[in-house]
């Protein structure tokens, strides 16, 4: 991140954090306007305020500082069950649609503006091909969309960045070398980068799980979890593999294994720290997008206004339309052609497909890829149309955020698409199963240790009250116990029984990871209360 030479870098960073926090507060107060839009527009307006330091976004900062922790956190909390169930839809979007977007944007831009070489048009298509994970996920959760839509959008966001960045590297190589890249060679390179990244990330994920068993201090354990994302990305990139997919693989492994080995204190501490880090990175990323506006605009003086407007409309329109066109065949054709697939994956409502198609906002990864374009060719000549490509990328980002992100909440309300309640029902059923498992454990311990009723009743009564709330069945009123030590032991046994049952339900895929993490946090809080009480 480059800044004005007269301003100390620390002052600039602190100023950015203060502005980001104020903009986030303002976005929360607005409510109706999605947070990413407020942050981008706010950053753009702030950039023109006289006296503030000029900030230039370094693409390497984005790829190294922003991308790894955001992807790692998303992968950590991704439900493996939901990801596997929606794998076909996710693959069609994260791989098929990214390829289609690259081609559609490239050909459309070249058709309307023939003066831009086709190789550069494809390069722009690759830059803007992956939708932004943060924007779509934030809006999806805030609008309480049905769980299948959220699962597909989150799953797509884990893979599409890798596909887009691989295509970007191939298209950039074609421009720099002037050579024609064949589909066969491009596919081979993609498989090597993707497969290598997944294997490396999985291996490092399991290695970190073994190392984390030795961490007992919550601060050290949380620090290690933050460093895992950066370390995985750096190693993968140095080995010329996909750092994005390596981080995703490591996050998925950690999400499956670490909740079973960490203590409740470590998990609660890590959750709070990660929540703060993710908020700062997400908000700061969108503010930095807006801050690039003055530099992007001033670099376009050599191009006619008509050409700029035509190119911006062509690129933005193609990026939006190709996703909408892709969505309906991608959603219905596999189900029509394969009856076995249709049995396990019924036809989704057209409103769900439309909402998913309209959730294609672009973000910081696209801008970082555009800013990472080299200044010169290997021959020493200036990189052709570099400023124009950066500006068009900015237009696609701003256009999709404002047009799609700004109207998505209204579209959701007009189509009357709401949460289907499946997640809440799953969590209710899981809580019921955990409570029943705890009651069985309490009765077993009471029988083994020959405890009296006055020792067992307080814990059992508490569990019965919870059972009554879940099933609306009257609980039996029992006298309170004065034996605090045995009461504490039974409560710990009840929590341990619930942990065992919760882990079993996730292994059997009776529940997804979102339900698992939510209920595990409740058990962690209960355990911490016992320790402090």
Structure notes:
The protein is mostly helical and 533 residues long. The protein has 2 domains: 354 residues, Up-down Bundle (Na+/H+ antiporter like fold), CATH 1.20.1530; 111 residues, no CATH class. Helix content is 78%, strand content 1%. The chain has 22 helices and 2 strands. It has a two-stranded antiparallel sheet with strand order 1-2. Helix 9 runs parallel beside helix 11 and helix 14 packs across helix 18. The radius of gyration is 26 Å and the shape is elongated. About 2% of the residues have low confidence.
What does this entry show, briefly?
By secondary structure, the chain is mostly helical.
Write the layout of secondary structure elements.
Layout (H helix, E strand, L loop, with lengths): L1 E2 L5 H22 L4 H13 L7 E2 L2 H18 L3 H6 L1 H26 L5 H10 L5 H10 L4 H31 L5 H30 L5 H21 L4 H19 L2 H28 L1 H6 L6 H33 L1 H6 L5 H8 L6 H8 L14 H29 L7 H27 L4 H19 L12 H24 L5 H20 L1
Antiparallel strand pairs: 1-2
Order of helices and strands: EHHEHHHHHHHHHHHHHHHHHHHH
Number of helices: 22
Kindly state the percentage of residues in helix. over 70%
Q: How far apart lie the N and C ends?
A: 48 Å
Total DSSP E strands: 2
Instruction: Give start-end ranges of low-pLDDT stretches.
Output: 473-482
Oligomeric composition of the shown chains: single chain
CATH class of the largest domain: Mainly Alpha
